[in-house]
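Entry:
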Amino acid sequence: MTYYLIAGEASGDLHGSNLLKALKIQDKEAEFRFWGGDQMAEVAGQPVKHISELAFMGFVEVVANLRTILSNIKLCKNDILSFQPDALILIDYPGFNMRIAEFAKENGIAVHYYISPQVWAWKQNRVHKLKKTVDEMYCILPFESDFYKKFDFDVQYVGHPLIDAIENYKSTALSKKEFVANYDLDNRPILALLPGSRKQEIKIKLPIMLEAAKQMKEHQILIAGAPTISAEFYKEISQGTTIKVIPNKTYDLLNNADLAMVTSGTATLETALFKVPQVVCYKGNSISYHIAKRLIKVNYISLVNLIMDQEIVKELIQNELTPENILQELKKFTPEKRTEIQSQYEELRSKLGGGGASEKLASLLIDNLGKKE
């Protein structure tokens, strides 16, 4: 079979890489072409486009980069037609991928969407477009199946791929002693800062995080460096603060962290699965934020709270995100509070399925394609 995969962000690159591995095992004849990042490249070679050229965040940023986005869409359409895959596999990244789905459907190419667009959060009317353009939808969050049932759209829940990604990591993880030695650290507890993977969000959130972290003198401050961001970029923002950047090794950092400040998104779920107490930090472009606020239909911004349907991790959003508020929340993590939240993290993990998401998906893809031959 021939497969064309499109991931546009760091989390999609991670899940795409694990899917590629599973497809290689189950389909010995598999051929791939893809848009993605370094992790997918390790499995399947050079991407058509790297995620570093694709990640634009927020309404204002999308408008500012519209010419580049439209050029990428045109390139993608032409490349898909040239490759003529048996299956187009779209991984999250809805602003781009939903356009490509419509195009592929018009041209008789089977569309498989992995990791549902967050239509349950906003723009729920997009479900109707997804029903028309997507042959198979594979969901990773437990509440999504019920959501789609309201629209008479049958989807398949495969479980969350982060369960496997983290278990695979832990099987070869550095020991605490090795981690400390590798990064020339001392024995103080570690405060991890995860400010995001895009320059726009890092510029806004990291200075606020650092200001709060300065007051946590009993901790070492370590920043999770995104794979597409240079160390110099972080140093420019953190002038006057003694920090270390752990480049492209977020799991090493979370596996050894005692506390964390985390930007909203997949990182909140990863932090929870490593059982690290966290404060969720979100602040966006003011115009983008106020537009989104009017459209979003969910009670929480972090995946942890959305899945649990209650606030088990504190969310500091927009004007609430201040150094003082972050510090106040971090200081609430007494030994008793840590025990409580780690118990809630265990419950969260059980809600995400028993693992094997990538293998389940690969099997479903192959079965679905076989039925259409």
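The domain at 2-159+356-371 is CATH 3.40.50.2000 (Rossmann fold).
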